[in-house]
Amino acid sequence: MEEKLLxxxxxxxxxxxxxxxxRDFLAAGDSMDGxxxxxxxxxxxxxxxxxxxxxxxxxxxxxLVLATQYILVxxxxxxxxxxxxLRHDLNDYLLKYAGHIGYSVRPxxxxxxxxxxxxxxxxxxARKLGLTRVLITCSTENEASRRTILxxxxxxxxxxxxxxxxxxxxxxxxxx
Length: 176
Known about the structure:
Elements: E1 5-8, H1 15-28, H2 44-55, E2 67-74, E3 80-87, H3 92-98, E4 101-105, H4 114-128, E5 133-139, H5 143-151, E6 155-162, E7 167-175
Antiparallel strand pairs: 1-2, 2-3, 3-4, 5-7, 6-7
């Protein structure tokens, strides 16, 4: 039987797990895609406060788009497995490089199918927002993410050079 996973909105109950998640990624030297401002936040409470800014048009920082943050939690033990950020619109940068959805799975929990299931749940949330198609990107070097996107109906459009991170990205569209 497949284990039960929950895609939840983050709240104060898992503050210590957000901080632990961040430490895992920093220790692995890995990016925290889909975690919003976690890398730049001083702690879990600061991260939650920054997320709230992204959810309200009145407090949205200039140049950004409205976004909803989710966390993937394993029901059996309450462990935070992954994060997914759903951007409601695309600005120029998101259209070229980052897309509607960013996601990541804790390094110690990879290769268990969590990313595929989390992305499917994120696509359900995108449908609820009224989106009819979403853009998702991944590094050309990230075979696991490519497989996750393809398994969820991704159709390759092209590659693009992302100048800030100095990497080639693959761009995929998913019809909802």
